[in-house]
## 1
Amino acid sequence: MPDSSTAPTIDDVAREARVSTATVSRVINDPDMVSAKTRERVQAVIEALGYTPNFAARFMAAKRTFTIGAIIPTMENAIFARGLQAFQEALHERGYTLLVSSSAYKAKVEEEQIRNLVARGADGLLLIGHDRDPAIYDYLDRQRVPVLVAWSYDETARAPCIGFDNRAAMRALTESVVDMGHRRLAMISGVSEQNDRARLRIAGVRDAMIAHGLDPASLDLIEVPYSIADGQAAFAQVMNRDTKPSIVLCGNDVLAAGAISGAEQLGLKVPDDVSVTGFDDIELAHVVRPPLTTMHVPHRAMGQMAAEELVGMIEEKRKGVSQNLKTSIVQRASVRAV
Amino acid sequence: MPDSSTAPTIDDVAREARVSTATVSRVINDPDMVSAKTRERVQAVIEALGYTPNFAARFMAAKRTFTIGAIIPTMENAIFARGLQAFQEALHERGYTLLVSSSAYKAKVEEEQIRNLVARGADGLLLIGHDRDPAIYDYLDRQRVPVLVAWSYDETARAPCIGFDNRAAMRALTESVVDMGHRRLAMISGVSEQNDRARLRIAGVRDAMIAHGLDPASLDLIEVPYSIADGQAAFAQVMNRDTKPSIVLCGNDVLAAGAISGAEQLGLKVPDDVSVTGFDDIELAHVVRPPLTTMHVPHRAMGQMAAEELVGMIEEKRKGVSQNLKTSIVQRASVRAV
DNA sequence: TGCTTTAACGTAACCGCTTACATTTTTGAC
DNA sequence: GTCAAAAATGTAAGCGGTTACGTTAAAGCA
C-alpha cells in the first residue's frame, strides 16, 4: 500500500500494477508499445492513485517539457493579450503548454525571466521585439533553446520573427494624416529605450515628415510609460506649447485613449480642436469616443503563426523563418482633415 | 575543458574550481558555509562558465522551486491584470517567480493547468474564485500544495481566500440605483456556470430587489461571455423587450463598456435614455463616455495581500487566513435618477 | 605539544523519471 | 511441435542537482 499522505510516484504505480516502471512510463508516453491488457491495468492504477508524473523528473530524463515560455512587457494593458491568447490556443492544439511572465518593460527583469524559463526547461521562447543584449542570444544558442520574436519584423535581426514593420506602418499612418493637411505634429510615444517598436514608430513618423518636406525636428515628442493616465498627462503637456499641434500621434491605443481623456479634461474636442491617432487597434480603440483612427495589427494571426513556427523550429530542429505581416490603417472619427 | 557546445553543469564548475559539487552547491545556496577563498574561486568559475543551475534537478533534490503558479480565467481583458501585476511584484520582492496560465473560463482547462503547475513544482497556487470540483482540492492537499483563492470572499469555502463579497457588493450597488428610483432592472452577466463571482453578483441584485419590494423574477437577465462585443449584443437584446429597463446592471466593466457602445448604436443616450453600471473599476471605466458608475475593487491591495499570505502559508507551513476586502461604489455619469 | 572542538570540504545516496539494452514471451511459418 | 522473428516487458544507468554523514584541516586550550 503506497503512503497515501504523499504524492504517488511511478514506483507506486508500478508496484500496484505489478509491472516495471518502464512499462508504466510506456503506457504514458508510448501507449501502443504495451499490450492492451497491461495497458488497461496500469491505466486503472494510475487513475485510482491519482498519479501525475513529476515534471522535473521527466524533464531531466527526457529533456523535453512541451512547454513554451513567453515574456511580454506587460499584462496591464490589452496590447499583447489578444495575440497571446491566440498563441496559447494554437500551442494547446499542438500539445504544448504556455507559461507567461511579464517583464514590466525592464531589460534586467526580462533577462532574469528568460533564464528562469530556460532553467525550467522551456522548449522554446517567444519574446517581444528585438532590442536586447546580444549576450542573451548567445546564452540561448548555447542552451539550444529556439527563440522567436513577435510584434516586430526585422530581417536583419538575429532572431527570426513573426511581426510587422513598425516603422513603415507608422510612416504610412503619418503620411495619411499629413495628406489630410496636418502640419503641426506631436507624438506621445512609449519609452523608446530598449524598445524597438517604440523607436521604430517614432522613426516612421519622422520618415513621413521628411518625405513631405516637414522638418522632423519640429515633431513635438514626449515619451511616457504605456498607460492611460500617462497618455492623459502627456497630452496636457503637448497642448501647453506655444504652437499647439493639430494632431497628436500616439504610440499605441492605450496612450491614445489617455490623450482623448486629456482633451476632454482640457475642454478640447476631438477631432474638431485636435486630432488623435492610436496604434494596435485593440478593443479599446472603438470604445472610446470618438473612436480611434489607428493602425490595425493582425494580433490573432500573428499569435497563431508564431505558435506554428516556433513549434516547427523545435520539432524539426530548424531555423525559424521570419514573416512580415501586413497592417492596415483603420479610419475612425478621431482624425479630421484640416 | 568543459564541452563549450552544451550548457555547463555543476560538475563542470566543480572540476574547473577544483572542489566537489557539494561545495559548489553550497556557494550557491548557503554561501557563508564555505571559506571566503574557495567561495570566490567558485564564483569566478560560475561567472566564467555562465553556469545556471538546472531547475528540474534542483527541484528534484530540494523540493522547492520558489515559484508560484496563478491561473486566471482570461488575459484578454484587464479585469485581472492589475491585481495580478501587484501579485507578481510582491512575489518578486520575496524572491518568488510567478507563472501564469489562463483557462479561458473553462473548468477542464483550469484543472489541466493546475496539474501542470503542480507537476512543475509550484510551491503554491493562486486561483480565482471558489467554484471548482472538490476533487481538485483533494489532489492539492495530497500534493501538499497550498492554494489561495482571490477575487471572491467566502468564509465557508474550502480554500482560504483574499477577496471581497461579490454578493453584498452587487446588492449595495443595486440598492443605490433603486434608491435613485430605478424599478425596471436588466442585468447583463458573465456566464455564471462554474463562476461564483458571476453567480453571486446576480444573487446580489436579486437580494436588493427583494429588500426593496421588487419581484426578483422581473429581473431581465442575460448571460454572455465577458467581452465588449458580447456586452453590446446583449444590450440590444434587453432593449428589445416590451418593457424596456431603465437601468442595465452589468457583471463587469467590460460588459458595461459594451453596453454603452450598444446604446450608442441604437441611438440611445446614456444615462438620459437608459442608465448603465459596471463592476471592477478598471481603467476602461473612466475612459468610456459617459464614465461608468461602477464598483471599485482594490485590485492592487488584493494582489499584494494575496502574495503575502500565500508566501506565509508556504514558508510557515500554516493554513491561510481569509480576508474580506472592502469595495466601494464609484458614482460617475452613467447613472441618473429617475 | 597533544588533544578536543569546530570549521571546511568531500563522498555518495537520493529525488522520479526515461530509455538503451537485455531478457522473456508470443506469434507464425514450416 | 520447432524454431526464428517479433512483441512485450524488465533492468539499470543516467539526468543534474542537494544534503546527511564522514573525513580532513584549522583552531582553541591545558
## 2
Amino acid sequence: MVKVRTIKDIAELAGVSTGTVSRALAGSELISKKTRARIQAIADEHGFKPNILARNLRIQRTGAIGVLIPLGHETGQHISDPFFITMLGLLADALTEKGYDLLLSRVIPTDERWLERFVDSGRVDGLIVIGQSDQSATLDRVADRYRPLVVWGGHYDGQVHCSVGSDNRKGGYIAAKHLIDRGCSRLAFFGDPKALEIGQRLEGCRLAMAEAGLSDNLSVLPAHLVAEAAHPDIANYLNSGGERPQGIVAASDVIAMSALRALSEFGLAVPGDVHVIGYDGLAICEQTVPRLSTVSQDLTQGAHHLVDMLLRRIAGEDTQSVVMEPQLVVRMSS
Amino acid sequence: MVKVRTIKDIAELAGVSTGTVSRALAGSELISKKTRARIQAIADEHGFKPNILARNLRIQRTGAIGVLIPLGHETGQHISDPFFITMLGLLADALTEKGYDLLLSRVIPTDERWLERFVDSGRVDGLIVIGQSDQSATLDRVADRYRPLVVWGGHYDGQVHCSVGSDNRKGGYIAAKHLIDRGCSRLAFFGDPKALEIGQRLEGCRLAMAEAGLSDNLSVLPAHLVAEAAHPDIANYLNSGGERPQGIVAASDVIAMSALRALSEFGLAVPGDVHVIGYDGLAICEQTVPRLSTVSQDLTQGAHHLVDMLLRRIAGEDTQSVVMEPQLVVRMSS
DNA sequence: ACATCAATAACAATCGATTGCAATAAAAAA
DNA sequence: TTTTTTATTGCAATCGATTGTTATTGATGT
C-alpha cells in the first residue's frame, strides 16, 4: 500500500484534483455526493490526516490557545502549585471540548515585554493568563490592542483587560466574618497583598473586622504562596512571641495547609486553640487533618467562563468581566 | 509606521529580496555582514516576528511536544492529580529550555487507537506519555513504528517502548522493609496493581515480606488513585473489622494522605498505632500532619531524562530505557 | 584590457491545504 | 436541434518562510 500523506496522493488515487479532495473532505456541497463518498472512503482506508500546519497557514489560525502563568510577585513559585494545576486541568478539558489545543507556558516576567513577546509570536489564536500576580498594568496595556486575551483573577475599577474570577473582597469578608462568629477577636491574615487578588481578600477581612469593631486586631503576615516557602514564614511568626491570633485567614488553601502543619508542630490544636480558614476550595482541603474550611471558588465554572469568553473574543465579540460569588465551606478547621 | 508582518514587508523596506531577508535573519554567512546588520536593524525596529506556522510548514517540524496523560485504569482520575501536575511543570520547564512548546492533552483511552490518532495528527514533533496506566500494549504497538515517543513509568522485560522511571520493585521493597524494621509484622498495601507501576511496587512489598517470613501477613486494598475516591475505600477497609495492619504501604503519596486522614478520623495515631509510608516524594508530603515518610523518585531528573531522550530520538538516535534509584525518605509518619 | 574567481544577492520552487474563478458536461428550456 | 442553465470539477493563486540554483558585481591576476 502506497503511503498517503497529502491530499495530492489522494487526488491521484481518486483521479481528481487536490481542490476536489479538499472540498470533498470538508463535506462541501459543491462536490457531488457520489464523489464525496468515494474520496472519503479512500481517505478512511488509508487513515489520511490532513497536514494541520499547512491548513492553519492557509486558514490563518493555529488551533491552539496559550495558557500563561506569570510568576511575578513570587519568582520562586512553582508551576506545580495545586491551584494552577487544578485550573490547568479544567482548562485543558474545556479547550479540548471546543477543538483547541492547549499550549502551556510558564513565564517569569523578567522585563516589561513578556506578554508582548508571546502575543506577537503568532503561535496561538488566543491567550488565557492565570492570575494577575502584580502584572495588572502589563495586562491592561496589552489588552488594549490584543483582543483575544482573558485573565483569571480579580477585578478592579478601570480595569481594561477582561477577567474572570470570584469576588475576592466578599470572599475575604466571608472568611473573616466566619471566624469572628466563631468567637475570634484577634485574627491574622496570611498572604502577600502585593498580588491583586490577595490584596482584595485582605480588604474584605479588614472590612469585616471594622464592622465588628476589631480594626486594630488584625495582623498581616505576607507569607509566600508556595507551601515550602510559606511554612518557615509562619513558623517564625508563631515564634515571634506576639500575641497569638485566635483565627487565621489564609490567602490560599496551600498557605492554610502550611499553617495547619506549623500549628501542629507548635503544639496548638485546630480549631481548639486557633481557627483556620483557607481560600480556593481545592480538592486537597478534604485531605488535611483536620479537614480545612475554606472560601470556595467554582473553578470548573470559572474555566468554562474563561474559554467561552475567549472564543467569543476571538470571534470578534466584546465581553465583560465576570465576577463570581465565593462560597463559605465550613469543615473541621474552624 | 507601516505594520511589518512578513519578511516580504521587510524585504521591501530594505530593498532586497525575501530570500535575502530570510538568510540575513538566520545569520547566514551567505549574506554580507553589512546587509545582515541593516536588515536585522529594520526587523528589530519594527519588532518583527517571523510567522512560525509558515516556517514550520517549510521546515517540516512543529516545534511542539505533546504530553499525554492516559487515564486508563481509572477514568475518574483527574488531571489535577498532584503527581501529574508536578511532572507537567517540570516538563514544561525542561522543554521550554530546549525551545519546544508543550501541548497538553488529557486522554481517556476509549478505544484502541487513542495514541495512533494523536501520533498521526502531525501536531507535534514528539510525544511524552506520563504513566503507562494499563496501556502498555498500546504503547508497545505504537512505539514499534513511531520513534519519537518516550514514557514515564515502569520498565518490564521485553518492553518495546522507551521509558524513564524509578525501580518500582525496589521502591516497594524499600518501603515494606522500612516498616518491617520499624516492627510491623502485618502490612497493608493500598493501591490498584492493575497499573503497571503499582503492580511492580506491590511485587517489591511481597518480596520484602517473604524475606521476613511474613508472606501471609500482607493484605492488598486496590484503592483508587484519586484522593477523593481513595478515602472511602480506605475508611471501608478500616471499618471492615479485619485484623488491623500495623503498617500501610501506599502506592502513592496521594493515597497515603487519604490514609492519614482516614486513620485520624478513625482515632488511630500515626505512627503510634499505624505506620504509614507513601510513594513519589511529592512536595505535599512535607505539608501533611504528621509529615509523610515516602519513597522518593527524583522527578526533576526524570523530567530531564525524558526530554533529553525524546530529543535524541527525534534526532534519529536510539535510546535505552532509564531506571532510576528510588530513595527512602523517613519523616514523621513511620 | 580581458579572463577568472569569489562574494553577494536575486529568482523561483517548495512545504500542503484552501478557495475564487473558469471550464466542462449534463440537464432543462426554447 | 439549439440555447440557456445548473451541477461538478479543474486550475491556479495564496498563506509566509526556506533554500538550491542562477545571475550579478567587483576584485584579482596576467
